[in-house]
């Protein structure tokens, strides 16, 4: 069975939702809470400042806060839950007998403690005067079995239900902040259901119908005071959507490539994000135009184009396919870039970047000037959509150093990692998280104590907490790089010290990363950090000996959980072009490398 890597609990519908490493969702309902969350001991999470912060617990993959306000640990399976229960008994109560331990383990204000002690002694057969640490392994197993029975882990088996499903997640946002208490209406064939977003802007998971039918998503129109359909979800693949409300009325069809295709027919122009393996001829054929027209529209001197670039394609036929790239309706910086020097390939000024999670959309100002219509906006389509964001920002900054960039934007402040100043703090992780969030992917782990600081740490894409070894549930690790993978440069100890986006290959063994804080700039840099390397040494007899050793540094690769299904396809297809770092940097205003000089980064 595939590994379950993270979990959440939905108290309003009493469903535990597990996310599998292959992107599928497992929903557990019915039974009892301990069974739904694989927690036979009903172990609660230690709370610090109102947030769960287990200090020594191991093996859990999430937290379940119930309607009563108590927060429990969620485990991936019963074995993991039993293992932590045993560890908890020995760690917290090892020098106590059962009658001494239970008043703390099951306090009176939550349990009938006297009955708990009697039942546990009777069913386990453990003498009342025996300390828990004095029990044999078999006796500990009996104690665990008895606690699981008392806590109701085995109760109501006839109501238990496990379902592997496609699930779509909908988040309410104004483009920068989550919107709590937003309301949507789900219209199914057998009726409708009203849902409200929680404090983090999240709605309960929308389970796709087994018959693959669609679920209409509606909101109440502030003008007509009646439900208006704004999109739909369904099918075999779950997706993440953002409900966007900000001064405009947005229209869109969720989960469809036909998002506002009417806009395209009217404007007859789009902005296309170049994908790995693209060339001008291929794009021209796709959109029924010519390579000459594309070059003219984009001031291209030659035929070479690069992944992540945004090209203006005009003169589109009405029969041409809908865009695979975001439209640009807003700039993402109020400061326009300075005119670019004409010493290299002519570049357009950086294309305006899409708003958070925005697909191709049209917009109309409401008469009141305040749009309250929410609409489903799918994260930007295309492979690794955050790369278009990163490329556009690299072009906008055009080789500027961090002390200049921070006068216009501080990525630490933008993502809220608690730090300030690019000059004083490593900012590679903040830049990466900023690009991901701008393309509609969640980067903040609500409920984790260390969630803010993690946004500024390169190692944070792997672990939320290095001491507690808590994996970041928002990202999945890949065995090898793909275009746009989040590449974490890691020491032999396993600690990640730098992060960038995998962009291409340069020569044997060199992976090109696009990232911030590389020579104090946003630029392309080569990394040769294979996990293993072959070295030559000399034996006692003077002969050369080849040895394979573990490199002192290596790369790990991650993608957002919701991108994993696409990542699996990318792993099977070519996606990393052979490129030259100096040519790439020339495009964004960065001078060629000095011979014999390695790039440098601040670490975090």
Automatic annotation (TrEMBL):
Domain LysM: 270-313
Name by which UniProt lists this protein: Peptidoglycan-binding protein
Stretch list, region Disordered: 320-361
Pfam family of the protein (one): LysM
Source species taxonomy: Bacteria, Pseudomonadati, Pseudomonadota, Betaproteobacteria, Burkholderiales
Ranges of compositional bias, category Low complexity: 320-331
Record organism: Variovorax paradoxus
